[in-house]
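new request in #modeling-help
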Amino acid sequence: MRKLLLQLDSSRLPSVFDQVVAYDAGADVIMSYGGVAESDVRDLIHGCIFTRGPKDLHNTAVWIGGNNMSAGEQLLAMAQDAMFDPLKVSLMLDSNGSNTTAVAAVVKIEETLGDLSGKKVVILAGTGPVGQRAAGLLARDGARVTITSRKPEQGEKARQFISARFNVQVEATTLTDSSRLPGVLEGADVLLNSGPAGVQMVPESAWTAVKTLKVAVDLNAAPPLGIEGVEVNDAGEKRNGVTVYGAFGVGTLKTKLHKACVARLFTRNDLVLDAEAIAEVAREMGPRKK
Ligand SMILES: NC(=O)c1ccc[n+]([C@@H]2O[C@H](COP(=O)([O-])OP(=O)(O)OC[C@H]3O[C@@H](n4cnc5c(N)ncnc54)[C@H](OP(=O)(O)O)[C@@H]3O)[C@@H](O)[C@H]2O)c1
């Protein structure tokens, strides 16, 4: 029986990246819908669950993506509401690659530092989809997390969202320019840049001055890179005594994880792969060579 993936994308054009990875992960057919609104979801899900019988439903799965994380979360909630036992299919949410990218970054940090309890983590521009997911996961693992934003109200909104979504405490601080970096980074063990593509967030002089810093991860792959002095292919190199990862150093694991999650969707019909469950898949993939 063919493996069918229903792609529900909140953006107008369903992500080609997500489609390519899904085919590479074993989907036989992808049924793609773009610009999906909450009111569209129930009938699309019913098209999945009322066709094949319960014992075959693991051959159908639903992927939820798009640029907007909160829209993706709403679509996921609607999809869950539209199903009932035993007529269910597995679901995965990865709007803008947020969950798989955040989990891959967290794995790299944990592989380097081990136990994160009490470690200070600063997530630059942590208000975006990737930064918010990473903040929640790291705080769940016991880290003291601070996210930065250029705008106080934006930072506070994200802080409240992360705290509620992951049941954790995180802090938010305003960072309008690099002159405030010494104060923001003081005592940090981990620096994670989740700022946008093509924006340098930290000059080399700022992070190399932080004597407590042990790990720096930059998720921006487009020049100028986000953390000056960390190269895009860095994958655990030591620079200035700090273990560093660039976007491709994290991206390889992100893509493997993305594929593993899509493949897993077709193993049963009741999975819901969101941040925590995706982190669990990464753990089950086992330790990696650095
Ligand atoms: N390596 C991988 O596999 C992979 C996969 C997916 C994504 N990524 C990368 O991960 C990073 C985060 O992705 P995302 O989608 O979460 O990011 P995003 O939403 O594009 O941006 C994150 C935050 O950056 C801040 N920002 C926007 N423009 C800025 C500017 N000019 N200067 C300083 N801050 C600015 C905004 O926060 P405030 O308005 O609150 O300041 C925004 O919420 C991106 O670099 C993306 O390319 C990497």
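bot summary: The chain is about 40% helix and 20% strand.
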